[in-house]
Amino acid sequence: MRTSSRIAWLAVLAISPLFSHGAEQLAVNPTPHLAKGGIAHANNAFEDKTGVKVSMPKKSGGCGATVLGLKTGKLDAGMMCCPPNKEEMGDLGLVASGIAKEGIVVTVHESNSITNLSTEQLRNIYQGRITNWKQVGGRDAPMSVYGYIMCANREEPARQYLVGVRDYKQGIVGIDNGKLAKSVIRVKPGVEIAKNVAADPNGIGFEATVYLPVKGAKVIQLDGIMASRETVADGTYPAIRHLYVVTKGYPSGRTKEYIDFLRSPEGQDLLESEGKLVKL
Question: How far apart are CA 219 and CA 226, in angstroms?
Answer without folding.
Answer: 8
